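Quick one: structure for this chain?
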Amino acid sequence: MQGRCTVASAALVGVEAIRVEVEVVISTGLTAFSIVGMVDAAVQESRERVRAALKQSGFSMPDGRIVVNLAPSSLRKSGSGFDLPIALGILAATRQIDPSLVEGRMFVGELSLAGRVRSVAGLLAYALCARSHGLDLVCTDEPSGLMSIDGLNMQGLSRLEKLRTSGFEAVCLETRMQEPCEFDYADVSGNEVAKRALQIAVAGRHGLLMMGPPGSGKTMLASRIPTIMPPLEEDEMLQCTLIHSVAGLDASSLLKGNRPFRAPHHSATPPSLMGGGSPIRPGEISLAHEGVLFLDELAEFKPSVLQQIRQPYEEGVVRIARAEGLVSFPARFMLVAATNPCPCGYFGDPVHECTCPPMKVQAYQARIGGPLMDRIDMHIDIRRVDPNTVIEAQGGTSSAQLLEGVLRAREFASWRRAREHVGESSNELIRSCALSAADEDFFKTAAKQNDMSGRAIVRTLSVARTIADMEEEGQVSRGHLCEALGFRPRSGFGVS
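Got it. Here's what it folds into:
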């Protein structure tokens, strides 16, 4: 038996899928099944899965030599998503199915030994690739992490044996419906100053560091930040879902409009945080794209790991260089961190005495590093709440109230930028503050006294601009500057 067929598929490179042609040639000769084209072990294992799936589905494996080439051969291919196109290529080449079934379509899916089509990581990337080439996407009938895309026709296949009777099926996609969060700032007793700081940080997308003794509520405050963030917009949802899809993670929460919240442990390695592996997968900072990256126990992270965050945090993208090329992942996130002021946690606490020697306190604080500290816009001290306030459950400001202020500030800022025709560069930010001569002199004096770097000056003005936007003020006043200056780190940044 002889024959040939070409089936369209794709390979993942970062968060992008690159079209791959699955070329199947069947010729006479000794029985053999080869897959070539710079493939990894998972693709080579497709031979056994395809052989078993075809037999269990009532099809036959052809006698002779089967050669499968995944082109272009210069592109490294990995994963089990080539099972389905290879199987269909063999069936079409041997005329066990109509060859027209594979025309105008892109196929991706893993096969079980019984012929069941399984979902694979990165389906959204494959969908975007299929649309860009004007092809229909055929995958499992119950895909995960896939959203409806304009201009793309998606079809499903539950089992290979379906091709003997009916054909492709409809795809069941999740519908968008934002779920109410079980957390609320109304549950947090006291800490109204911290809530105000968090509201400012979310309104202006500023980085924030919380420092305080154990039990002061740092983690509890941080975990509720998504409740005061606006829901994901369509383009943001597409990007976030794409990253989670490539990483093989559940994206159902994102499809409902909820922003990502990632909280890696302080033992995280550079590849897990920045991305890496083989094949290269996005790390925690990319999974937090358009959401929150929460680094709890910041001083416990390895200094070498923390310093790698600096460049992606400023540029909004992480670049990973490997022998096969450079891979980029989006990483525009809001950085929120929490830490104790010393190893025992009670440095500066008015109730518990700190047992750490001064040199040990200084060394502990120095683990974070000055460059990263300078890049975090806001620094606040968190104190333990009075027991009476906790027992009486005096929650105070709710998430709904804080969210209202965030939305108002962002709406005013958008209107102001459109009216003033300003962007987000440093010069345009300074111009948008419209400081009076007296307030400008005041801020210059404060910057000299606090030995602020150029970056710190711009970030402080950015926070002041956000505070003014929350009050719907076109000009930044001295009161806004004073509040913003209060969020800058002091020398010896422990609780005072």
